[in-house]
C-alpha cells in the first residue's frame, strides 16, 4: 500500500476480501509447483492484498469498467502496482536463506536489470521482460572472495556493491526489446572486505567466468585457481596505508562505478569510494584486475572548517555526470559528494586511466551565497547524505539532514531537505580549467525544499545509509531509501511537499532499491519501481504520487512558495505536473456516476434486451455533455475493446500467438461492441450523439474499425506462422518461426512500449498487451515511424525485402479491413464534415510513408535481385499507395473544411504522391519489358507490347486518376499512343478546374505539337480557351474556330505589337507581351495586323471603324520602321533594329541621322502615333522642328535673296524646297493625314493660334520654337513664311497676298 509516511493505512476497503476467494474474472490458478509455500513468507496475514505470486493484479483489468480501463489501467492507480515476481530460482534460494536481513539487491536503470544476492550466489534478471521470456542469470561467487566472511562472523557475505557494464551501448533500447545485442559485464565489490570480482559477459557462456582481485591484507593461498589473476599497485602511498585492513579501522566501500573502455575487448574501468575518502581505480579485463588508489578525499574536519564532531564517513556518494554515456568517448566525468562539498573528476577511459580533479563546490560552508547555512537557522549539525544528477548532467539534487534544537521545548529534531543546484550562467561544464580559477561553478536553483521539518533524531549510521533516487514521474519527484529498508516518495510542487511511504499489507521485506522504468521514447522521466526483499518488484504510478497533493493543504514550505514561483523553479517540470493535474481533475464524480449508470443499463440490456427509459436516465445524469474521448459512451466503448481476457493468462509466447483463444476473444469483443451499438440505436442515444456529439460517435465506431483491423492482423499473423513453420504446429517450431518474423518483432515492440508506459500491464506478455489494447492501434504505426530500421535492418538484402513485404502487407490489410468496416456501417456514422478518421492521422501517415520510402529505396538501391521479388515489392508498394494517398487526401479535405492551414500538408501530399507514382511507373515499364521479352523472344510486335502494357497498367491508372497523378496518366497515354484514352481521361474532369486537361495542353505546347493541341480544342473548347490565354500566338486560331472574331482581332493586334511600348496604342490598351511568341519579324507582324483587320471586318462591331484606323496606323508605323532602318548605312545597325522599335526610338534615329529625308520621317512617325504620345513627347517634337530648321542654311538664303535681288516668285520657290515647308505641310497642311487628332492640339503653328488656357506651357508654338533658332534674326520672316505657306498650301494663296501678310 502507498500511504503518507506519517500515518499507515489500515486498508478498510480490503479487509473484507478473503485471500482464498478468487475474483469472478480471475485467471486459472497456477500449478502448485509455481506457487511458493505460504510458510516461506514470515508474518503473512490471513487477509489483505493478495501476494504477487497469487492471482495476478492485472486480472482486475478484465472487469469491463470504463472508469478503470481507460488509458489501459486495470486497477487503482493510486496504489502500488505489482510488476514482476522473483524468478523461480531466486525464490528457491530465498527459501534456503535463514536470515532474510542479509538480502541485498538493486536495479540498473540503463539495462533494466534487477539483481539480488542470496548466500554465495548473484541472481540477475530483467524485470521488464514478459513472464514467458524471463530468464535469470545465476553467478556463483567464488569461495576465495568469501573467505574472510566465512572466517569472521561479524562480516556479512551479502554486502556487495554491483555495477553493470553495458557492452551494447551502441544499440538503442529497441534493439534490446527485440532481444538483440544484449551483452553486459558485472563488477562486484564487497563493501567490508574490498574484494573485487569481474564477470566479462554474464550473457555469454564463454565469457562469464569470474576474475577475482583481493585487497593487500588478504593472504593468498598458493592454490589460487588459474582464472584468478591478482595484480595490485598503489600511488601516492602514505604512511601506514600499504596493506591496510579495512576492518581494523571500520573502513568500507560505499560507492562503485564502472564504465566500458572503448575497445573490442570486454575491458572496463571501475571506480570505488571508501568511507574514509579513498578513491580507487580498478582496471578489469577478462584475464586480470589492476587496483590502484588514486586519491584521498579530505574531510571538512581535516581542513579546520568546522567545529562539528568528527564524521565517520568523509565521502558520501559517487555518480557519473551522464548516466547513459555514449560509446566511443575517451574520457568520462563523475561527481563525488563529501561531507561538505561536491567535487568533479575526470577519468581517462583509454590508456593510463588517469584520474584528475576538475573543480569543487562547497555546500556546507559559511558563505551564504555558496553554502546552505544561510537557509538553515539554528542548526547544530549538517549532513550531506546523497547526491544524484539528472540526465542532462547539469542539475544536482542533494539530500541534506540537519540537527537542530527547538527553542521552546529544548528538544532536538532532524530536518530533511532537498537542495537543487545547477551550473552558473555562462560556465562551461566540460572545461578542465576550473581548478585554476576561483569562480563559482554551481548556484542554487531556488530555496531548499523541506521534506520533513521535524523528524526524530537518528544515529549517524542510519542517516548515512540513506540513498536518493531521482528521474521518476511526476517530474521533480524523488525516492529516499534508508538502511532499514524503507522507501519514501516525495513530490514537491508550488510550495506543497507530499511524502508517501511504500508499504504492503503483508511482510514484503525490506525495500532493496528503487529506480525508474525507462520508456522507449527516451523521455526524461519514467515510472517509479521498487525492489523488495520478499514481494518482488512493484511500481508506483504517477497518480499515486500526486494523489496527496489534492488532499493535503498547507506546506512546511509556505514561506518559500512566493520565492519559488518568482524564481520559476523547474518551470518545465511545473508545466508538466500542471498538465497532469488538469487531466486527472477532468474526470469528475459526475462522470463516475454517469459511467456507472451506463454500465448498469448496458449490462441489463445484455441480459434482457430492454432499454426502457435508458435515454432519459442518461440525459438526466448529464452523460451527453462531454465530447470526444472523454465522453462516457466513448469510454464505455473503449473499455469493451481494451478489456484483458481472463483466458489469455494460461498461454505464453509462441503458445499464446498460436492459440485459437486469441481470435476467439477478439471475436467476442467484436460481438459485444456490436451489441453496444445496438444498445445505442434502440435507446435513441445514437441519434443524440449523431446530432450533438459527432466526434464521440465517430470515436465509438472507430473502435469497431480497429477491432476489425486487429482481427485481420491476427489472422495474418497465423498465416505467416503456419507458412513459415511448414505446417508444424508445435510450440518449439512456432517459437523459432516467430524469431524470424518482422511482424512478430513489431508486435513485441508495440506491446513493450505499452507495458512500459502502463505499469499495470507489466506482468503481461508483449503480444498479450498488443492484442488487448485495440484502441491504441496507432501505436503500431508510431513504432514503424520511429523504429522501422530496427525491425527491418538485416545484413542480407533478401531478408530485408522479405521482412519489409511482411510489414507492408500487414499494414495494408489492417487499414483495408478498417475501411471495409466503415463502408459496411456507413449509415451509423455522423456527418463527416470536419471529422478526421484515425487512419488519416499524422502518426499513421508517417508510419505508412516510412514503409513506402523503404520499399522505394530497396527498388532503387538494392543490388540485382530476382525480378519476381522486385515485382512483389512493387505490388506491396501499390497496396501501400492506395491507403497512404487516400489518408493524405482525406486529411487535406478535413483541413479545408475546418478552415485550417493546409498548403504545407498539400505540398507534402503531392511530393510523396509523385515519388510513389514515378517509382510504380518505372517498375511497370520494367515488368512490361520483361514479359514482352519472354513472349516475343527476339521478335518485334509493338501491338503486343501495347496490349501487355494496357493490361498491366490498370491498377496504376486507377491510383493516378484518384489522386491526380497527371504525369503518370500522361506517360501511360503516351506509351500506349492512345489519343482515345487521353480524351476519355480528359472527359472525366480529373482535378480541380479541369486540372488534367490543362496538364495535357501544357505538355503538347512544350512539345510544339500545336495541331494536336488545337484539335483537342474542338471537344474541350472552354478548357483550351483558358489555357491559350497565356499563349496568344495560338489563341486567335482557337477563337476563330469558336467564331469569336472580335476577340481574335484583338489578339492578332496584340501579336503584331509584341514588344513593350511598341506603339502608343499598345501602351494605351495595356497589352501583356510576356505571353507572346518572341522574335517575330516585321513581315510576321504585318501579317498579324492584316489578319486582325480581316477578323475585325468579319465581325464589324460598333468599334469597327476605330479598330481599322488603329490597325492602319500601326501598319504605317511598321512601314516607317522598315524605311527608316533601311536608310541606315551600317548593316550591323540594321540587324540590331530588326525587332519592333518604339516610336520614340524611331524618331531619335531620324534626328541622329541629320539627313533631310529622315528628318521629315520623324514627323511622319509622330503623325501615326496617338495624341497622347504626341502630348507626352512634345519636347521631342520641339527637337524635330529645330532639327528641321537646321537642315537649311537660312542665313545664306536670306543673304542671297538680298544680294541677288530675288523676286517674290523666286523666294517662294526656294521656300517650297526647305524642310520647314515640307514639315509644316505634313503636319498642318490641308492634305495632312494624322491619326487621333492633329498637331494643333499639341503644338500650334503660330503664336496667335495659342490659347493660353489650353497648354501647360502657354505661348509655345512652332513660330516660338523657330525664334530660338540662330538664323531667325536674319531670316525670321522667311522661316515663318515657309511654315505658313506649308499650312495654307503652295497654290492656295497668291504671291501678293502672302507678301502682304508678311
UniProtKB/TrEMBL annotation:
Domain Nucleoporin Nup133/Nup155-like N-terminal: 81-538
Keywords: Nucleus, Transport
Places the protein is found: Nucleus
Gene3D superfamilies (UniProt xref): YVTN repeat-like/Quinoprotein amine dehydrogenase (2.130.10.10)
GO biological process: poly(A)+ mRNA export from nucleus; protein import into nucleus; transcription-dependent tethering of RNA polymerase II gene DNA at nuclear periphery
UniProt GO MF annotations: structural constituent of nuclear pore
Biased composition (Basic residues): 7-16
InterPro entries: Nucleoporin_Nup133/Nup155_N (IPR014908), Nup133-like (IPR037624), WD40/YVTN_repeat-like_dom_sf (IPR015943)
This protein's record includes keyword Protein biosynthesis: no
One matching Pfam family: Nucleoporin_N
Renumbered residue ranges of the record's region Disordered: 1-49, 551-572
Principal place of residence: nucleus
Origin superkingdom: Eukaryota
Statement: the UniProt record of this protein carries the keyword Transferase: no
Family affiliation: Belongs to the nucleoporin Nup133 family.
Protein name: Nucleoporin Nup133/Nup155-like N-terminal domain-containing protein
Organism expressing this protein natively: Spirodela intermedia
Amino acid at each position: 500500500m502507498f500511504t503518507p509516511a506519517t500515518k499507515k493505512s489500515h486498508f478498510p476497503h480490503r479487509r473484507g476480501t478473503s485471500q482464498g476467494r478468487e475474483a469472478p474474472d480471475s485467471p486459472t490458478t497456477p500449478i502448485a509447483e509455481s506457487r511458493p509455500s505460504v510458510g516461506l513468507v514470515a508474518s503473512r496475514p490471513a487477509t489483505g492484498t493478495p501476494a504477487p505470486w497469487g492471482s495476478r493484479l492485472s486480472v482486475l483489468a478484465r472487469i469491463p469498467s470504463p472508469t478503470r480501463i481507460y488509458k489501459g489501467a486495470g486497477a487503482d492507480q493510486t496504489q502500488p502496482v505489482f510488476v514482476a515476481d522473483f524468478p523461480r530460482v531466486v525464490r528457491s534460494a530465498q527459501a534456503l536463506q535463514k536470515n532474510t536481513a542479509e538480502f541485498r539487491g538493486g536495479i540498473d536503470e540503463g539495462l533494466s536489470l534487477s539483481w539480488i544476492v542470496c548466500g554465495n550466489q548473484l541472481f540477475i534478471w530483467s524485470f521488464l521482460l514478459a513472464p514467458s521470456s524471463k530468464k535469470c542469470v545465476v553467478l556463483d561467487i567464488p569461495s576465495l572472495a568469501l573467505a574472510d566472511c566465512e572466517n569472521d562472523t561479524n562480516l556479512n557475505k551479502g554486502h556487495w556493491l554491483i555495477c553493470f557494464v553495458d557492452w551494447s551501448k551502441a544499440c538503442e533500447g529497441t534493439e534490446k526489446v527485440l532481444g538483440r545485442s544484449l551483452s553486459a559485464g558485472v563488477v562486484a565489490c564487497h563493501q567490508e572486505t574490498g574484494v573485487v570480482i569481474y564477470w566479462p559477459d554474464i550473457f555469454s557462456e564463454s565469457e562469464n567466468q569470474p576474475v577475482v582481485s583481493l585487497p593487500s591484507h588478504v593472504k593468498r593461498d598458493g592454490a589460487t585457481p588459474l582464472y584468478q589473476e591478482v595484480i595490485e599497485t598503489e600511488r601516492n602511498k602514505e604512511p601506514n596505508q600499504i596493506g591496510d585492513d579495512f576492518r581494523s579501522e571500520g573502513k568500507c566501500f560505499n560507492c562503485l562505478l564502472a564504465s566500458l573502455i572503448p575497445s573490442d575487448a570486454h575491458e572496463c574501468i571501475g571506480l570505488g569510494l571508501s568511507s574514509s575518502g579513498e578513491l580507487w581505480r580498478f582496471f578489469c579485463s577478462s584475464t586480470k584486475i589492476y587496483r590502484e588508489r588514486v586519491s584521498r578525499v579530505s574531510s571538512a574536519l581535516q581542513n579546520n572548517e568546522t567545529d562539528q564532531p568528527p564524521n565517520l564517513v568523509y565521502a558520501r556518494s559517487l555518480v557519473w555526470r551522464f548516466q547513459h554515456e555514449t560509446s566511443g568517448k575517451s574520457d568520462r566525468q563523475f561527481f563525488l559528494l563529501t561531507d561538505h562539498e561536491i567535487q568533479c573528476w575526470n577519468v581517462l577511459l583509454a590508456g593510463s586511466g588517469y584520474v584528475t580533479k576538475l573543480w569543487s563546490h562547497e555546500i556546507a560552508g559559511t558563505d551564504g551565497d555558496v553554502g546552505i547555512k544561510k537557509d538553515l537557522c539554528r542548526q547544530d549539525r549538517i549532513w550531506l547524505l546523497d547526491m544524484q544528477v539528472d540526465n542532462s548532467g547539469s542539475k544536482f539534487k542533494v539530500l541534506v539532514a540537519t540537527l537542530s534544537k527547538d527553542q521552546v521545548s529544548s528538544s532536538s529534531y532532524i530536518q530533511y531537505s532537498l537542495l537543487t543546484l545547477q551550473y552558473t550562467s555562462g560556465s562551461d561544464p566540460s572545461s578542465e580549467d576550473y581548478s585554476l580559477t576561483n569562480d563559482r561553478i554551481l548556484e542554487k536553483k531556488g530555496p531548499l525544499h523541506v521534506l520533513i521539518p521535524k523528524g526524530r533524531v537518528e544515529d549517524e549510521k542510519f542517516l548515512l545509509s540513506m540513498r536518493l533516487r531521482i528521474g521518476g514521474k511526476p517530474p521533480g519527484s524523488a525516492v529516499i531509501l534508508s538502511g532499514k529498508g524503507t522507501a519514501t516518495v516525495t513530490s514537491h510542487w508550488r510550495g506543497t511537499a507530499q511524502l508517501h511511504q511504500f508499504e504492503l499489507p503483508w511482510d514484503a521485506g525490506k525495500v532493496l532499491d528503487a529506480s525508474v522504468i525507462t520508456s522507449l521514447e527516451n523521455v526524461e522521466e519514467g515510472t517509479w519501481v521498487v525492489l523488495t526483499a520478499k514481494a518482488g518488484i512493484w511500481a508506483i504510478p504517477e497518480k499515486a504520487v500526486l494523489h496527496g497533493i489534492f488532499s493535503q493543504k498547507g506546506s512546511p514550505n509556505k514561506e518559500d512558495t512566493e520565492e519559488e514561483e518568482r524564481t520559476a523553479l523547474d518551470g518545465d517540470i511545473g508545466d508538466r505536473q500542471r498538465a497532469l493535474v488538469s487531466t486527472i481533475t477532468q474526470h469528475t464524480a459526475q462522470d463516475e456516476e454517469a459511467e456507472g449508470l451506463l454500465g448498469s443499463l448496458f449490462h441489463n440490456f445484455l441480459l434482457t434486451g430492454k432499454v426502457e427509459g435508458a435515454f432519459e436516465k442518461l440525459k438526466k445524469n448529464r452523460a451527453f455533455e462531454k465530447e470526444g474521448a472523454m465522453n462516457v459512451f466513448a469510454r464505455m466503448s473503449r473499455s469493451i475493446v481494451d478489456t484483458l481476457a481472463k483466458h489469455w493468462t494460461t498461454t505464453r509466447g509462441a503458445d499464446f500467438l498460436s492459440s485459437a483463444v486469441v481470435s476467439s476473444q477478439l471475436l467476442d469483443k467484436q460481438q459485444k461492441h456490436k451489441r453496444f451499438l445496438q444498445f445505442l440505436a434502440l435507446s435513441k442515444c445514437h441519434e443524440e450523439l449523431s446530432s450533438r456529439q459527432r466526434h464521440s460517435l465517430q470515436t465509438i465506431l472507430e473502435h469497431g474499425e480497429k477491432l476489425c483491423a486487429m482481427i485481420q492482423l491476427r489472422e495474418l499473423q497465423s498465416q505467416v506462422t503456419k507458412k513459415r513453420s511448414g505446417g508444424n504446429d508445435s510450440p518449439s517450431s512456432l517459437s523459432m518461426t516467430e524469431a524470424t518474423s518482422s511482424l512478430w518483432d513489431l508486435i513485441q515492440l508495440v506491446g513493450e512500449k505499452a507495458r512500459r508506459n502502463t505499469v499495470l500491464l507489466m506482468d503481461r506478455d508483449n503480444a498479450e498487451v498488443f492484442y488487448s489494447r485495440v484502441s491504441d492501434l496507432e501505436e503500431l504505426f508510431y513504432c514503424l515511424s520511429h523504429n522501422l530500421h530496427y525491425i527491418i535492418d538485416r545484413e542480407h538484402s533478401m531478408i530485408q525485402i522479405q521482412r519489409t513485404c511482411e510489414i507492408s502487407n500487414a499494414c495494408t490489410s489492417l487499414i483495408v479491413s478498417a475501411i471495409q468496416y466503415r463502408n459496411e456501417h456507413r449509415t451509423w456514422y455522423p456527418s463527416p464534415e470536419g471529422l478526421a478518421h484515425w487512419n488519416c492521422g499524422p502518426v499513421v501517415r508517417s508510419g505508412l510513408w516510412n514503409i513506402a520510402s523503404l520499399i522505394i529505396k530497396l527498388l532503387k538501391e538494392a543490388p540485382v535481385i530476382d525480378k519476381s521479388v522486385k515485382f512483389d515489392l512493387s505490388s506491396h508498394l501499390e497496396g501501400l499507395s492506395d491507403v497512404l494517398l487516400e489518408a493524405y487526401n482525406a486529411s487535406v479535405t478535413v483541413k479545408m473544411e475546418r478552415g485550417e492551414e493546409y498548403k504545407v500538408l498539400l505540398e507534402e501530399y503531392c511530393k510523396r504522391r509523385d515519388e510513389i507514382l514515378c517509382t510504380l511507373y518505372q517498375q511497370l515499364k520494367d515488368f512490361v519489358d520483361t514479359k514482352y521479352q519472354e513472349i516475343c523472344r527476339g521478335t518485334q510486335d509493338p501491338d503486343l507490347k501495347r496490349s501487355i502494357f494496357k493490361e498491366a497498367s490498370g491498377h496504376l491508372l486507377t491510383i493516378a486518376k484518384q489522386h491526380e497523378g497527371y504525369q503518370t496518366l500522361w506517360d501511360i497515354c503516351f506509351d500506349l499512343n492512345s489519343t482515345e484514352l487521353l480524351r476519355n481521361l480528359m472527359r472525366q474532369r480529373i482535378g480541380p478546374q479541369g486540372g488534367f486537361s490543362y496538364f495535357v495542353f501544357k505538355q503538347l505546347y512544350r512539345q510544339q505539337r500545336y495541331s494536336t493541341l488545337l484539335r483537342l480544342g474542338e471537344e474541350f473548347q472552354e478548357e483550351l480557351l483558358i489555357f491559350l490565354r497565356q499563349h496568344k500566338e495560338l489563341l486567335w486560331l482557337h477563337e476563330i474556330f469558336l467564331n469569336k472574331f472580335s476577340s481574335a482581332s484583338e489578339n492578332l493586334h496584340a501579336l503584331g505589337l509584341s514588344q513593350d511600348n511598341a506603339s502608343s496604342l499598345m501602351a494605351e490598351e495595356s497589352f501583356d507581351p510576356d505571353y507572346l511568341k518572341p522574335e517575330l519579324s516585321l513581315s510576321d507582324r504585318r501579317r498579324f495586323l492584316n489578319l486582325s483587320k480581316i477578323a475585325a471586318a468579319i465581325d464589324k462591331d460598333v468599334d469597327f471603324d476605330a479598330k481599322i484606323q488603329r490597325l492602319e496606323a500601326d501598319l504605317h508605323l511598321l512601314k516607317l520602321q522598315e524605311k527608316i532602318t533601311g536608310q541606315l548605312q551600317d548593316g550591323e545597325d540594321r540587324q540590331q533594329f530588326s525587332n519592333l522599335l518604339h516610336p520614340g526610338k524611331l524618331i531619335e534615329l531620324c534626328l541622329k541621322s541629320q539627313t533631310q529625308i529622315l528628318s521629315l520621317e520623324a514627323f511622319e512617325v509622330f503623325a501615326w502615333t496617338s495624341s497622347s504620345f504626341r502630348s507626352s513627347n512634345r519636347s521631342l517634337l520641339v527637337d524635330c522642328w529645330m532639327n528641321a530648321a537646321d537642315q537649311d542654311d537660312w542665313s545664306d538664303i536670306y543673304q542671297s535673296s538680298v544680294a541677288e535681288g530675288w523676286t517674290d516668285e523666286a523666294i517662294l520657290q526656294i521656300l517650297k524646297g526647305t524642310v520647314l515647308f515640307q514639315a509644316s505641310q505634313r503636319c498642318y497642311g490641308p492634305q495632312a493625314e494624322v491619326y487621333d487628332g492633329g498637331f494643333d492640339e499639341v503644338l500650334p503653328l503660330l503664336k496667335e493660334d495659342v490659347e493660353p488656357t489650353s497648354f501647360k506651357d502657354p505661348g509655345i508654338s512652332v513660330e516660338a520654337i523657330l525664334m530660338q533658332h540662330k538664323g531667325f534674326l536674319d531670316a525670321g520672316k522667311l522661316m515663318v513664311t515657309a511654315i505658313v505657306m506649308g499650312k495654307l498650301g503652295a497654290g492656295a494663296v497668291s504671291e501678293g497676298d502672302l507678301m502682304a501678310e508678311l
